[in-house]
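Need residues for this backbone.
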């Protein structure tokens, strides 16, 4: 399974999808999540239409597209507002596509349980980010100790070459679905 960064919705100017790929390759025998990195949530009809068009283009090229992942760093205190955005997006997303989001480790430690529970009926999974930039966030074990009652299926996002030792609770967590490894471009010299 691949999570493939397809485009971005950046700050500044009117909201629009900035494509990051020149074409739509055929990736046989691979399940794909198309990822949109977002710096803002004020998407307009043109932005949503461009994203839906990309999902369709990847499928028409013969790819197995599972769904859309929104990569947005929603502040822990802003999960309720983010849930409203995602509810609207889910309503507009064709049923054949699943919806995934990235999530901060802080959601489990300081997030409002009711706000997190509201996401459970909207998104199919949360990919919990354990890194910042090119490094694993120190003390990640403490955050995972607080995920005992996390109400949504989740995967753990690791950074390539990052320091990681799985907390013991992960193997037994009923919502844990595996790992996603964020591949890095070689550093410029």
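Answer:
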């Amino acid at each position: 399974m691949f999570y493939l960064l397809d485009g971005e919705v950046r700050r500044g100017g009117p909201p629009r999808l900035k494509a990051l790929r020149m074409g739509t390759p055929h990736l046989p025998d691979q399940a794909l999540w198309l990822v949109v990195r977002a710096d803002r949530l004020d998407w307009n009809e043109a932005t949503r239409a461009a994203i839906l068009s990309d999902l369709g283009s990847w499928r028409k090229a013969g790819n197995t597209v599972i769904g859309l992942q929104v990569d947005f760093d929603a502040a822990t205190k802003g999960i309720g507002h983010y849930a409203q955005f995602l509810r609207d997006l889910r309503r507009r997303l064709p049923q054949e596509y699943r919806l995934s989001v990235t999530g901060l480790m802080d959601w489990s430690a300081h997030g409002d349980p009711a706000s997190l529970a509201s996401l459970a009926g909207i998104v199919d999974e949360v990919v919990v980010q354990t890194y910042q930039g090119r490094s694993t966030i120190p003390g990640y074990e403490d955050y995972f100790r607080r995920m005992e009652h996390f109400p949504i299926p989740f995967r753990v996002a690791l950074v390539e070459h990052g320091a990681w030792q799985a907390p013991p609770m992960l193997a037994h967590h009923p919502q844990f679905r595996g790992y996603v490894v964020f591949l890095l471009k070689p550093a410029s010299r």
